[in-house]
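Here is one chain, start to finish.
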Amino acid sequence: MTTSTAAPGATSPAGGARQSSLAGRASSGHLWPVTKQLAWRSGLGMIRIPATIIPTLVMPIFFTLVFGGAFGALTRLPGFPTDNILNWMVPFSVLQGSAFAGLGAAFGAGKDIENGFYDRLLLAPAPRLGLVLGPLLYSAARALLPAATVIAVGYLGGARIQGGALSLLVLLVGAMGTAIVAGLWGLGITYRLKSQRAGGLVQVGIFVTIFLSAGQVPLSSMEGWLHTAASINPFTAVLTMARQGFLGAVTWDDTWPGLAALAIGGSLLALFAHRGFRKLIP
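Its structure:
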C-alpha cells in the first residue's frame, strides 16, 4: 500500500480555493468600512491638532474681506450681475477654501508615508482603493467647514442667496467636488515624491488654477492672455455653477459645464493619482 503526503507548504485545491475566496473578501468586500475608518482617522487628527484646520477657515474669510474691498468697484460696471460684491466673492472664497481642504489629503498621506504607517496599510488585507477614497472622503467633508464660515461672514456683510435651496446645493456640490479634485491632484504628487514636502508643489498648482480663472473679475472685463486663460480654465465653469445662486436663479445652462469640468478633471486626476499609487505598492 502506498500513501501520499503533501509537502509542508502545499495546499489542496479546495484549500487554495478557500484561501483565494477569503483573500477576495478581505481585499474587496470591506471597501466602505475601510474608507470610512480612514476618513474618520483623518478627522480625529484634525480634532487633536486644531491648528491644522485654522488656515482652511481663516484664509477664505481673509480673501473674502480683502477681495471684497479691493474689487468693490466692480459693482459699478454696466451689466455687473449684483450690487453687493460679496455675492460675487463668497462663492469664489468657498471654492478656494475647498481646494485647500483637499490639500489635507496630500499632507496626511505624506505624513503616513514618511513615518512608515502607509507601508503597514499596504500590507494589510484591506482593499487598496480604500486607502485613496478615505482621504478623499475626509477632504469632501472638510470642505463643508470653510463653506459654512464663509457663507456666514458673507451673510453678515449683506450677501444673499437669490435662487433658494437649489443655490446652496450647487454651491456645496461645487465645493465638495473641488475638494475631491484637489485631493486627487495632491495625492498624485505626494505618491510620487513620497514626502509632505510635496505640499508646496501642490499649492502652486492650486493657486495657478484659482487665480487664472474668472474668480475676481468677470470674463467680459478681461483682456489679452488672461481672458484666454480664464476662458479655457475648467475652474471658471465650476465657479459659474457655484456662483449662479448668489447672482440670480439656478439654471441648467450654468450648471452642466461645471459638473462636466469636475467629472472630467476628477477622472483625469484619478488616473494621475492611480499611477502614482502604483509606485508605492511593494
